[in-house]
Design goal:
Number of strands of chain B: 11
Structural class of chain B: mainly alpha
Strand content of chain B: 5-15%
Strand order of the largest sheet of chain A: 21-20-24-17-16-27-30-29
CATH class of one domain in chain B: Alpha Beta
Distance between the termini of chain B: 80 Å
Largest sheet of chain B: 5 strands, mixed
Strand content of chain A: 35-45%
CATH topology of one domain in chain B: Rossmann fold
Helix content of chain B: 55-70%
Radius of gyration of chain A: 48 Å
Number of helices of chain A: 7
Radius of gyration of chain B: 31 Å
Largest sheet of chain A: 8 strands, mixed
Number of strands of chain A: 31
Shape of chain B: globular
Oligomer: heterodimer
């Protein structure tokens, strides 16, 4: 059978977690080789055991310690009292007779530091109590053992005293004890002040969303509670602000989150908006986020908040054997935070296949589908659940999956085709004639009306051209006044004359066409009027032109000519005005 | 003008038309982007969060809607507010906004775009202001052409008055209601211009949406009848008018009655009577016109006498019925808010609760300049432009601006209704002015370029009449104008669009201005526009973006954030029992229910004056009496807002007189005079003992003196009157970081000891509390 030749136990209670480190030297003094080793804890500790790892360390040198953890499972308690919990450790190789093995055991317990008194006022200090055994509880005989408890650097209210108990500074030592029977037990109680933040996340949901566009988005929802002694009575802000140290020592204001390096787009908010009290420091090694909840947390007070950050994909996603794997830490980045219920959801991109997860410790696994940005099939979500998580669980997990890069393009293509279809429908809708009945009177009337409008536009453009020719005529007159070249002027008149005639020829069929439509009955008189007016204007202009040219031929003075054409000029202006009015009227149709 | 000069018919004109259309669509899209993005200052400077008070309620309702669905929403009885009465939310809320946002959220989520309800709510207002500016374009286009439409849309996109109610996060009814208002008006004008029943039906639907969205729909249902009446009186009756009006009244009223909050009010209250009266009148007029058409003039005269006599009788009967109806209802059939519109002094006389809201006060002159800025100067020009020529549509906008100016003068909140009218008017004014000036410039430049060598012409820019005929439309001149227009930004880029161009030409002929004058005037107009833009951006960024639940102050060592409200709401929501009741003044009711999820006694929906008065009475009573009132209401926590430490002026001490007034209005033992020293409201050593012993005073200043030793109140700028006192019936449970919110818990009643119980009894029977106990229905 086994004998523990030497046991050293160190309990660290400087934070809210009691972290126990044990060095066990196991000797097989029996005749058969042994391949299993039993670890026992008192039940009240065993129930609160959050983390347990056992590693063999060969030799005494510190550097030689191997990091291979041995597999640990909860063993059934055959013939043992209920007040003991047992874990069995599979040894790396069977321990044959007379062999020695050194085991390093790390165990973390939550909720073992009981606040006492359970309710304190704002001004009182926060005292907690630790119960342990001065002697190592073991199914094996122990030859030599010692216990040291590292207390926070503060007041120590009381502790159980035995003859070989020593208090050195903030370190309390029990032992050494020699040659004790198996299952020897001597309870001790340490009552001391704790300044640590008793921050407990009742529930933490971490969503890790992988985007192959280059980002891993982490969103963490915390329900945090202060699990220390509850606050009783008033909370006075005055006292808290004026004398924060005695009057608020039991509260914590800050939490420090140590995020991976190159974390970006960090936010800190709760369900009613952004929380502005946070501070970030970052360098190439790490990103430190100091967050302050909306209010200082006293014992029993709760709060809720969300932290989110993006991480570069290249730091976390790797490829191996045709598969990709995400290598990311499991627990919360907040230091010294105990999580009662941790749910990690790894959201993989749409179209991932063959998903498998490896974790360094047992977790509950399941899979879900999440629909996010324009998903059709949905994204596979790996859900990992674990209760009672301590910072020691902050180890990397690996999620393996297969993903083809073509899937990346599906959503942009979908968007593009969506817009494409939208525009195409718009084009078709505006171009196509989608009236139901092609023979209904309203449809025919509409067609007719379209024709009328087209004709009107033609008429308009011809009249405009006429007007433009008129302008040319006027221009030629001005040239005349400058150069005195009568011949060119006459030529201009001739050309415009013929041009105008052509135009009026063009107008005629249009007019007839317009009159043939019943729906244009209220327009055609106006159009006719326009044409008549235009004709008149033509004549007037010609007359004026002739007069001016004649005047120049007769070499009469400019003033004289002007006097002669003055009346004509007025009429021209009036006519022109009328034509423009008519044009405007037609235009408004 | 381009279209008119095109040498070939057909293609170039069509091309230019298309170009103009594409350009105006592009400009409209840009206006939409502008309207959306100018409202994002609050998100950029602060955060994406719901603002102020009412938006929190709407947000909460939207959350409920998105979680539980529409049927649950209609039947929702909210037990988190007005404890112990509760409130039937489905039947007392204008559902337009929540349904809109809920639908958007649902649509996005069914497309798998996972936006939170909060995000949708925050951005609903900016999105709808883009819609509103497009609706303004449509409306103004119907009135004065697309040029004016674009100008008006651009102005509306950034008018500060509208920004103040529609920045991102300001999730209030007005955000969608202004869009609905303008769109309803547009459809009315469109129906009036086309006489199409299709648009008339759409108009009724738009009106329905407006009724769903905002109580301000009564503005529509009174303005449109007034316009119809105006048209009839000025002899502008036409079948189009009938089509525009009659379906609206019938369909609109039926649809409005479908909205639970309106229900039978749509036919019963006086706000709607004008529409029915005009409905009768328009039928009479239609009949008269019809008879006039089928009868000879002689017969018609006979008929007129007949009809008039019968009509008089009918009218008399109807009027008698109306009068009887109006007289039978207690407030004369008018709601308090409507009455205070008709008689601005009504609220302050009779309903202190309406008067106590700052947005129900009349505005000051500077607020006009602040809210509509240069538009105030452009509006008269726009009105003049509307009169030349006066059409049905332009007479409508004139009526609209006149009415809205009156209403905005009564209540500062209705400045919002004025803003679109002012934008439309200013858009018309600007567009006409630009037409005139650019027309003149073009004409002048055309003239000079045409005769650059002509010595005579260079000197004579003023002999306009002669050049008039010959000048103008050479290609060169046009090119110059086009170049300029492209430089001068979008307001003039629409110039190539052919429609207003002809008008411009007419104008040009009528009013040709000298080149220098028009250039200077143009520059001045552009400067005016620039000032407007600068002011709007400033207003959006500085004045109207603060969410009011987060305050910031700029000090020497950087930006300081005061997030006290959310700090204490978060505390309440996480550290009190879910069914605890929190009493506070009604301003904070909506926020407490939405952010802290705790039951409140009164909230911002001030429907029960007595209940509010009870809380007001408690706040103004001494501690013991207040404790009894609160205890009778199951209150566990009392929340007060206190700004004395950091100088936050809108705290409860400054609102205290309203609590006294409202409380005193129902419980007469609270007298305003008891709280005033010689008519002055003060909290220093001169204050009255009633004041110094009131619960509000004590809860605000509890242990305040210990902060600086003197108790100097930074808001009132004085030392407080009573410095050292203890609370016997309340205990402080939470005070926020800057002391802005203080939460107190009611101490449990003490066990009765024989002697003490007697003593207590004698005290209460003599003190104020017994009175309040009698009056207070909850005791």
């Amino acid at each position: 059978d086994l004998v523990l030749s030497k046991v050293e136990r160190r309990i660290d209670v400087t934070s809210q977690i009691a972290r126990v480190t044990k060095t066990l030297k196991v000797v097989n003094s029996g005749s058969e080789s042994v391949s299993e080793f039993a670890l026992t804890f008192p039940k009240f500790l065993g129930n609160n055991l959050a983390y347990l790892s056992v590693a063999p360390s060969e030799g005494k040198g510190k550097s030689k310690r191997t990091l291979v953890n041995l597999s640990v499972r909860e063993a059934d308690q055959k013939g043992l009292p209920d007040s003991i919990s047992v874990y069995s450790v599979a040894l790396p190789k069977p321990l044959s007779k007379g062999d020695t093995l050194t085991l390093e055991v790390v165990a973390a317990f939550t909720n073992v530091l009981q606040p006492f008194p359970e309710k304190i006022t704002q001004g009182e200090i926060h005292l907690v109590m630790l119960q342990e055994s001065a002697q190592y509880l073991s199914p094996y005989a122990v030859e030599s053992q010692s216990l040291s408890i590292k207390l926070p650097n503060a007041r120590i209210e009381s502790y159980t005293k035995f003859e070989n108990t020593k208090l050195q500074g903030s370190e309390l030592k029990y032992g050494p004890y020699k040659n004790l029977q198996s299952y020897s037990y001597s309870p001790i109680v340490v009552h001391f002040e704790s300044k640590a933040a008793f921050a407990v996340a009742e529930k933490l949901v971490r969503e890790i969303e992988v985007s192959h566009w280059g980002n891993v988005q982490v969103t963490e929802n915390y329900n945090v509670v202060h699990r220390g002694a509850q606050l009783k009575g008033e909370f006075s802000r005055l006292d808290f602000q004026a004398r924060p140290n005695p009057r608020g020592a039991s509260a914590f204001r800050h939490l420090l989150a140590r995020l991976p390096p190159r974390a970006h787009s960090i936010y800190y908010r709760d369900d009613i908006g952004n929380i502005s009290t946070s501070e970030m420091k970052s360098d190439s090694k790490k990103t430190e986020l100091l967050i302050e909840p909306r209010f200082p947390l006293f014992g029993g007070w709760k709060t809720f908040f969300t932290i989110g950050y993006g991480l570069p994909l290249t730091d976390f996603l790797f490829a191996s054997e045709g598969k990709r794997f995400l290598n990311i830490s499991f627990g919360s980045p907040i230091l010294d935070l105990v999580t009662e219920k941790l749910i990690v959801q790894v959201v993989l991109p749409e179209g991932s296949k063959d998903i498998s997860v490896t974790t360094p410790f047992a977790v509950k696994q399941s899979q879900e589908i999440k629909y996010s940005h324009l998903d059709i099939a949905g994204r596979p979500v790996v859900v990992l659940e674990k209760n009672n998580v301590v910072p020691d669980h902050n180890q990397h997990i690996q999620v393996y999956y297969k993903f083809s890069n073509i899937n990346l393009l599906s959503e942009p293509l979908m968007l593009i085709s969506g817009f494409f279809i939208l525009f195409i429908t718009c084009i078709i809708y505006t171009r196509a004639d989608i009236s139901i009945s092609k023979s209904s009177p309203s449809y025919l009337a509409k067609l007719q009306w379209d024709e009328v409008l087209a004709t009107l536009q033609e008429v308009q453009s011809i009249v405009q051209k006429c007007l433009a020719t008129h302008d040319k005529l006027e221009a030629s007159l001005r040239d005349l006044s400058r150069t005195g070249d009568i011949q060119t002027c006459k030529a201009a008149r001739k050309s415009t004359d013929s041009l105008l005639k052509d135009l009026s020829k063009e107008l005629k069929p249009l007019l007839g066409f317009l009159q043939s439509f019943p729906s244009a009955s209220h327009i055609s008189p106006k159009v006719e009027e326009l044409v008549v007016k235009e004709k008149e204007l033509q004549e007037k202009l010609m007359a004026k032109h002739t007069t001016v040219v004649e005047g120049y031929e007769k070499k009469s003075s400019g003033r004289d000519i002007e006097n002669r054409i003055a009346s004509q000029q007025q009429k021209i202006i009036a006519l022109r005005q009328e034509i423009e009015d008519l044009l405007e009227f037609i235009d408004e149709i | 003008m381009a279209a008119l000069e095109s040498p070939l018919p057909g293609t170039p004109t069509a091309m230019r038309n298309a170009f103009g259309n594409v350009l105006s669509v592009l400009i409209l899209v840009l206006i939409g982007v502008l309207a959306f993005s100018i409202r994002l200052f609050s998100v950029i400077k602060y955060e994406s969060v719901i603002h102020e008070f009412d938006p929190y309620f709407n947000y909460r309702v939207t959350q409920f809607l998105s979680k539980n669905g529409i049927y649950e929403f209609w039947n929702w009885f909210d037990d988190r507010t007005w404890y112990p009465l509760g409130r039937v939310i489905g039947g007392t809320v204008y559902p337009g906004l929540t349904l809109t946002a809920g639908t958007i959220w649902w649509g996005l989520n069914s497309l798998n775009i996972p936006l939170s309800v909060e995000t949708v709510c925050v951005f609903t207002a900016p999105v709808f202001s883009a819609f509103a500016s497009w609706a303004t374009y449509l409306l103004t286009k119907e009135v004065k052409g697309s040029g004016a439409g674009l100008a008006a849309a651009a102005l509306l996109a950034m008018v500060p008055s509208y920004i103040s109610r529609s920045v991102a996060g300001s999730y209030d009814n007005e955000a969608v209601a202004i869009f609905a208002l303008i769109f309803t008006f547009y459809l009315y004008i469109k129906t009036l211009n086309t006489g199409s029943l299709f648009y008339a039906t759409l108009n009724a639907l738009a009106y329905f949406y407006m009724v769903c969205s905002w109580g301000g729909y009564t503005f529509i249902i009174n303005l449109i009848p007034m316009h119809v009446l105006l048209c009839i009186v000025t002899g502008r009756y036409s079948p189009r008018l009938y089509i525009a009006y009659a379906p609206l009244v019938v369909l609109g009223t039926l649809l409005a009655a479908l909205v639970p909050v309106v229900g039978f009010n749509a036919v019963l209250t006086s706000e709607h009577f004008a529409s029915f009266l005009v409905f009768i009148i328009i039928h009479v007029v239609a009949l008269v016109y019809y008879i006039k058409g089928i009868l000879s003039p002689k017969m018609f005269k006979v008929a007129v006498t007949l009809v008039v006599s019968i009509g008089m009788v009918v009218c008399f009967i109807v009027v008698a019925i109306l009068v009887a109806l109006v007289a039978s209802s207690p407030t004369g059939g008018w709601s308090g808010r409507s009455l205070s519109l008709l008689d601005p002094t009504y609220a302050s006389k009779y309903i202190p609760i309406i008067a106590s809201v700052s947005e129900h006060q009349p505005p000051t002159w500077p607020s006009y300049f602040m809210d509509i800025n240069v538009l105030a100067f452009l509006v008269p020009a726009g009105i003049i432009a509307c009169f030349s020529p006066l059409s049905d549509a332009s007479s409508f906008v004139v009526l609209y601006i006149v009415m809205s100016v009156y209403f905005s003068g009564v209540m500062v909140r209705l400045m919002l209704v004025l803003a679109p009218a002012a934008c439309i008017m200013s858009g018309i004014a600007l567009s006409q002015a630009f037409d005139v000036f650019t027309g003149s410039i073009k004409y002048q430049l055309g003239a000079s370029s045409n005769s650059t060598d002509d010595a005579e012409d260079n000197t004579s820019t003023n002999n306009a009449p002669k050049d008039d005929v010959s000048a103008g439309k050479t290609d060169k001149g046009e090119e110059i104008v086009k170049e300029r227009s492209s430089k001068k930004g979008k307001k003039k880029e629409r110039e190539p669009a052919d429609k207003p161009s002809v008008k411009a030409k007419i104008k040009k002929k009528a009013l040709v201005l000298p080149l220098e004058a028009s250039i200077v005037a143009l520059l001045l107009l552009i400067m005016l526009g620039a000032f407007y833009v600068i002011h709007c951006v400033w207003a959006a960024a500085e004045a109207y973006s603060a969410p009011s639940i987060v305050l910031t102050s700029q000090s020497r060592d950087g930006l300081h954030v005061f997030d006290d409200f959310r700090e204490s709401y978060a505390w309440l929501s996480h550290n009190t029992d879910v069914d605890d009741k929190v009493a506070s003044w009604w301003d904070y009711g909506y926020q407490t229910t939405a952010m802290a999820n705790r039951t409140v006694i009164v909230d911002n929906n001030t429907w029960n004056n007595t209940h509010i008065a009870t809380v007001g009475t408690a706040m103004s009573s001494p501690e013991k009496a207040a404790w009894e009132i609160f205890n009778s209401l199951d209150v566990k926590y009392v929340l007060v807002v206190f700004g004395g430490l950091i100088g936050y002026p809108s705290d409860d001490i400054n609102k205290f007189l309203w609590m006294v007034r409202i409380g005193g209005g129902v419980f007469p033992h609270i007298k305003e005079a008891d709280y005033l020293r010689d008519g002055q409201y003060r909290i220093d050593s001169e204050a009255t003992p009633t004041m110094l012993n009131s619960l509000m005073y004590k809860l605000s200043y509890y242990r305040f003196v210990e902060t600086d030793g003197k108790g100097y109140d930074r808001v009132r700028r004085t030392e407080i009157g009573k410095k050292h006192f203890k609370l016997t019936h309340f205990e402080e449970v939470f005070t926020s970081h800057h002391w802005m919110v203080r939460l107190y818990k009611l101490k449990p009643p003490r066990n009765r000891i024989r002697g003490k119980a007697k003593k207590l009894k004698s005290k209460t029977s003599s003190g104020l509390s017994s009175k309040s106990a009698k009056k207070n229905p909850w005791v």
